[in-house]
Amino acid sequence: MIDLRKAFETGGALILAPAYLLLDNGPQPGKAVLIREGVFAEIGEPEVLVKRHAGATLVQLPEHLVMPGFIDTHTHLTQSLGKSLVFGEPSEIFRRIWVPLEGSLDEHMVYLSSKLAALECLRGGFTAAVDAGTRSAGHIGRLVEAARETGLRLVVGQICNDLGGAALRPERNEIIRIAEAHLAAFAGDRLVHPSLAISIPEAGSDWMLKRISDMAAEADVTFQTHVNEHLVAVERSLVANSRRPLEHLDHIGALGPQALIAHSTLITPHEMNLLKDSGTAVAYNPVASVWKGNAIAPALQLQALGIRFGLGTDGTRADGFRLMDAAESLQRAGYGLASGDSSCGGGWLWLEAATRMAADAVGLGAVTGRIAPGLAADFLLVNLERPEFTPSHDLTWELVRYGNRDQIDAVFTNGRLRLLHGWPVDWDARELMRELRELAVPAIAAAPVTRIHPTADSILAGRS
Hints:
Elements: H1 4-7, E1 14-23, E2 26-28, E3 32-36, E4 39-44, H2 46-52, E5 57-68, E6 70-75, H3 93-104, H4 107-123, E7 126-131, H5 140-150, E8 153-159, H6 172-185, E9 192-197, H7 206-219, E10 222-227, H8 231-241, H9 245-251, E11 259-263, H10 269-278, E12 281-284, H11 286-292, H12 299-305, E13 309-311, H13 320-339, H14 347-353, H15 356-361, E14 379-383, H16 395-402, E15 408-413, E16 416-420, E17 423-424, H17 429-446, H18 456-461
Parallel strand pairs: 1-5, 6-7, 7-8, 8-9, 9-10, 10-11, 11-12, 12-13
Antiparallel strand pairs: 1-2, 1-3, 3-4, 5-14, 14-15, 15-16, 16-17
C-alpha cells in the first residue's frame, strides 16, 4: 500500500500517475498530471512528463482515480450546530430555526460551527463551498478564519439585507460601505473569494436588490439569494408585488450572469426563459428538496435550455457522491419515470454538475472545477480498490451511483494535502468535536429556536 502522507510530504513539483485521471473527456488511463506551486501545470503521459521535468517527484497511484474536487454551490457553514434540529419540520425553517440560531451565536461559536462544517465539506470531497452568508452579528471574519485553517476554498457571502432577516440591520449607506469593504478584503485571494448576498428578495428593498446585484456584476463576483423555494414565499411576493419572486427580480433588473439563485424549485416556463435570457445561474439542491422543500428544481429542463446550474447541499449532508446520486434520483422520480427517460441526462451530467458546471455557476470557472493546466490543484484521490468499483464497466456512472465519501483517501486544495483518510493532517479535528460537544447544547438552548415537532428520540423515550 502507498504511504500517501510520505508521498506528498516531498515538497516541490509532483507528477501524479494514477490508474485514471478524470479529464473533460472522462476518466483517462495512462495519463499523468504535473502539479507545481499549487496549480495543475501540464497533462501528458507519465514517462514524457518525467523526462521533461527531471526535478519533479513522480507519485505512482495505480489503485486510484485523481478527480476534481466537488463544489458545493450553496451551503450555510454557520448552521452546522443545529443541522439535525430540522428533520421532519415544515418549510421555511429559516424563520423559526436558522435566523434565531445564527443570530444568537457569538464569535467563538461562529468559528467552531464554521470549522465543523468546513471539515464535513472536505470529508465529503468538497474542495470548494459557496456560503450564502452568516446571519450572525458581524462575525464573518471568524467564518473565513475557519475555512483558511481547514483549507476549504470558500466563496463567502456578505449579507446586505436592508429589511431584516439577520442579526444586524445597518443603515443603507453602511450596508454599501460594508459590501465594498468585503469585496476589497479578498481581492486576489488564492483561497477565499468574496460574494454579496441578500437572504431572500423580501429581505431587501428593490433599490438594495438592484444595487447589490450591480455591485457584484461590477466586481465580477457572485450575487446570491434564495428564490422560489417555498410556496408561501411565492404567494407573499404575489401579494406584495403582483409578481412572483423571480419575476420581480427580473422586473427590477437584479438578474444577470452574476446572479446565483438558490433552489428555484417552483419556477414556471416563463421564469425559465427569464433565467435563460438573463444568464442567471441556479444552485440545484436535491437533498434540501427531499428533506425540507416543496418541489424539485427542473434541472433537466435547465440543462436543455442552456441555463447554468451546479449542485448544492444547502447544508444538509456533506457528501459529494451522495449529492450526485440524489440529483439524478430526484430527476428520475420527478420527471424521468413519467416520460420514460431512463438516462436522466446520463452519469456525466451529474458528475459535471458537481464539478465543472458548479465552478462556472459560482464564478470560479477560471479557478477550479477541472483538471486542466492553469487551474488550482483542488482534487481528490479516490480509492478504486473497493468492492463498489469491482468489476468496473462504466466508471463515470459508478461514481454517481456507487461512490461514497469513505472511498476518498485524500483531499487537496491549492496542491496541498488537507485530509488523509477523512481526517486533517495539520490540525486536531477530534479536539474541535470535543469542544463542540461541551458548548453546542447550551448554545442551542440559549437560541430562540421554535420547533413544530419534538425530536424522534423524545417520541421513542415516551414509549417506555
